[in-house]
Automatic annotation (TrEMBL):
Pfam families: Methyltransf_11. This is Methyltransferase type 11 domain-containing protein. Residues 73-166 form the Methyltransferase type domain. It comes from Allokutzneria multivorans. InterPro entries: Erg6_SMT_methyltransf, Methyltransf_11, SAM-dependent_MTases_sf. Keywords: Transferase. Transmembrane segments: none annotated. It comes from the Bacteria.
Length: 263
């Protein structure tokens, strides 16, 4: 469990620091990106970086098989650029964006006005009634959740029977990996991020009542592109460059995890 200092640092990243404004994330989404191809022999453009982040959203939300009658929840919506993309491209009946940061939600409302339904709340204690949603997704937020078992239970609670979950972030590949990852990645060592073993999260989902848990590794389409982008920005320090090393050493990978709530 992270201490108060780690939680404060996490809050500051999305509050006063405004991580989403950094060139590292192209001032738009806040994710590593899904790179269907990585430009070779030239620099990646800012537009290409932004498209990689939008592509990750499409990858995750596509796993939900959204219907026009669906009520959908995004957990960890940030400034809601991805929430707007989901509403516009996938066209569910309703879509709610949930985030713990009032500062992020204020930025989101400044950008999107009243277009989106945005709520402040904790992913481990969601402010919704049981059986409120048909689909739930989360794009690169779960690495901050201090208890993925509690998140899995809450996700199952707010989903209707037969509802679907789709989530993407990085995970440790084995039970031993987090110790080595902490030596490479400062935010893991500080417990701003949690490198949870992927098998443990799958067990959490099953324990919470999910079935048909499917894990897809997309590291090949994430880490090289992100590393190439980081190398050409001002943020080419050990944090940014060590992710690819961690992947190549088999310590971490990036996964899309889908599951269905049991009837």
């Amino acid at each position: 469990m992270a201490d108060g200092g780690a939680a404060a640092k996490r809050a500051a990243m999305y509050g006063e620091v405004d991580l989403g404004s950094f060139e590292l994330f192209s001032g738009n989404f806040i994710n590593y990106g899904y790179w269907e191809s990585v430009p070779l022999g030239r620099e990646i453009t800012l537009e290409e970086r932004t498209r990689s982040q939008a592509a990750l959203y499409r990858k995750v939300v596509s796993g939900l098989e959204v219907k026009k009658s669906d009520a959908v929840l995004e957990v960890g919506c940030g400034i809601a650029v991805g929430t707007e993309l989901t509403l516009r491209e996938f066209r569910p009946a309703s879509l709610v964006g949930l985030d713990f940061s009032d500062a992020q939600l204020a930025r989101a409302r400044a950008v999107h006005g009243d277009l989106l339904d945005l709520r402040e709340g904790d992913a481990l204690k969601m402010p919704f009634e049981d059986n409120s949603f048909d689909k739930l997704y989360s794009v690169e937020a779960a690495q901050h959740f201090e208890d993925l078992g509690a998140f899995a239970a809450e996700a199952h609670r707010v989903l209707r029977p037969g509802g679907r979950l789709s989530l993407a972030t990085f995970f440790a590949t084995t039970e031993e990996s987090p110790r080595e990852l902490a030596k490479l990645i400062e935010t893991i060592d500080d417990e701003i991020d949690f490198a949870v073993p992927i098998k443990r999260f799958c067990a959490d989902l099953c324990d919470a009542g999910f079935a048909e848990v499917n894990v897809e590794s997309i590291g090949d389409s994430v880490w090289l592109g992100f590393d190439t982008w980081v190398a050409q920005t001002r943020y080419h320090d050990s944090w940014g460059r060590n992710w690819l090393e961690a992947y190549r050493r088999g310590l971490a990978d990036y996964f899309v995890v889908t599951a269905s709530a049991k009837n």
